Amino acid sequence: MRPTLRQIEYFVAVAEFGAFGAAANALAVSQPSLSKQLASMEEELGIVLFERTSRRVTLTPIGKKMLQRARTILQDVTEFKAAARGSVGLFGDRLTIGVLPSVGAYFMPIASKRLHVRFPNLRLVVREGTTAQLLEMLIDGRIDTVIGTPTNEPNIESVSLFTETLWVCAASDDPLSAQSGPVALTELADRPLLALSSGFTLHDIVEDLAVKANTFVSRDYQGASLDAIRQMAVMGAGVAVLPSLYALAEAVRDPDFVVRRIDHPEARHDIALHWRRSTPHKDDFQQLVEHLIAAKQEIREARGERFK
Amino acid sequence: MRPTLRQIEYFVAVAEFGAFGAAANALAVSQPSLSKQLASMEEELGIVLFERTSRRVTLTPIGKKMLQRARTILQDVTEFKAAARGSVGLFGDRLTIGVLPSVGAYFMPIASKRLHVRFPNLRLVVREGTTAQLLEMLIDGRIDTVIGTPTNEPNIESVSLFTETLWVCAASDDPLSAQSGPVALTELADRPLLALSSGFTLHDIVEDLAVKANTFVSRDYQGASLDAIRQMAVMGAGVAVLPSLYALAEAVRDPDFVVRRIDHPEARHDIALHWRRSTPHKDDFQQLVEHLIAAKQEIREARGERFK
DNA sequence: AGATATTGATAGCTAAAAGCTATTAATGGG
DNA sequence: CCCATTAATAGCTTTTAGCTATCAATATCT
């Protein structure tokens, strides 16, 4: 592409030194090389940048104007290179991450704080959605990674992060709320379960559990958010099934909020980190996994004795 | 200089097409050439700009950020080239011209108006000074051309523009002001002449005339400006010797202001255009000369009948 | 005024960079 | 499972950039 950055660089150097020889010396090239580049540039641009005498080299009026623009270009290129050098942290300096709602509200605040300490230049952009929506965005390249349920998508690599347990809550005058400690599936028989709307993996898990507990998922009150489900349960509309991240965070905040873990091996919600197999950031993702697991541990330790 | 403009251009093209092949086609280069340039660029910058799958090419988070800067650079270069192409008028689009005071005040307004009509993009910067000062600035390259008295400086080329006649004025009750028409040198005998301060060529000319007229130049009232000299003359301090550009402009403005041409072959002030012999704008100066002469003619025609 | 030293341009050659064609490797779709 | 598509790699050619040596112009110093 003409003019070349090299030519522009030479032009600025000659303008600053006011002499070809000195400029060539500063640039560590021979004077004829520099002369030729300048001559080419002038010919290609169709203008004369310098007025030459054997003693002095002066900018022409046009040259003065071009010099300003030339400096701008070199400055931009310098910044371009600096930006590249500055992008040596995790994922450069920006990561767009898609997460499930419970993760976004109750896990990411702690995780991002931790990441910020370790990678001060990393800017996290968080988008929420269902695992299916997030994986589509991941494959499209609209986001860089996903925290969601496991998947078998080809070209997606995953690492398991942690497992959420599932907890129930009901109205405060409900028999379920009278006791604490794990609750057996049999205790849920014939009680309508409240779950997130279909599309979320959690919905399917609750459906399976309902079958095993000889009950059903309420069709009338499929909540769009975990908060909505909890409110419906408190009002007596059924038994809310909540993932531990949400349930325990709320329970810690409100001691009167009774939640009980469902005592069943399938009452769990596996959470994994996903990325495109083609990513050039595999190592970075491995690091990210470690920090996310550490963040989960941190949350666990921060909980009251009740939920250890 | 790395990265090369060519590399940056390729980078933007691939980002826009989302494919190496299509970008290569649009750039009229082969796909391998483009691949290699991009690979080199990534290696040299130490970052990965694209995530490659065999189906799709996506920008990495870093790549997105670098793309913005890359576009800025290409935009600047485009403007750089456009500026060069736009600089095809007289002297590019800017001319710094040094002139004598009388020329600056009474000639340049008309001349620059005329030049502006002919060269709408030309911006004139005018500096005033003595011929000696102006020539020094010209040689230094601080200004591009000079309108001043003739010189024998080496490496300066000159073309004569016009000749100013010299005119006298005195107090309104002075015998000189009682008549009109040319005044002979003999009429000035023993009258102190008022002239610009030494340093101006006009001062030396008046000194010579004074000798021929059997009189002298007043030492007490060497004016720093032509206006000052006129005021002193009007107050009776002597006989002001003024160049025609000034004298006639003032006379036209004020009909009561009596000026009379000195009738002597040496009562003249030659004005020439000077430029450095090394300038690459010789043709432009030739054009400039024509327009300046035409401007002088215009001024002459605009004067009242009295001074034709 | 003539010798000398300094500066940029030119010539001719060498080295490096960029380009091309042919081929390979990877992968998604029929 | 084969075929079509796409990017990477290999090997060679062309173009560009750079270097040394030299020339031309000219300012400076006797």
Walk me through the structure.
The structure is a homodimer of 308-residue chains. In chain A, strand 1 and strand 2 (57-59) form a beta hairpin. Chain A is an alpha/beta fold and 308 residues long. Chain A folds into 3 domains: 5-86, Winged helix-like DNA-binding domain superfamily/Winged helix DNA-binding domain (Arc Repressor Mutant, subunit A, Orthogonal Bundle), CATH 1.10.10.10; 94-162 and 270-303, D-Maltodextrin-Binding Protein, domain 2 (3-Layer(aba) Sandwich), CATH 3.40.190; 163-268, D-Maltodextrin-Binding Protein, domain 2. Helices cover 47% and strands 18% of the residues of chain A. In chain A, strands 3, 4, 5, 6, 7, 8, 9 and 10 form an 8-stranded mixed β-sheet that branches. At the A-B interface, helix 1, helix 4 and strand 3 of A face helix 1, helix 4 and strand 3 of B. The first copy, chain A, binds a DNA duplex (30 and 30 nucleotides) through helix 3.
Task: Identify the notable features of this structure and list them briefly.
homodimer, 308 residues, alpha/beta, Arc Repressor Mutant, subunit A, D-Maltodextrin-Binding Protein, domain 2, 3 domains, eight-stranded mixed beta sheet, two-stranded antiparallel ribbon, 12 helices, 47% helix, DNA-binding
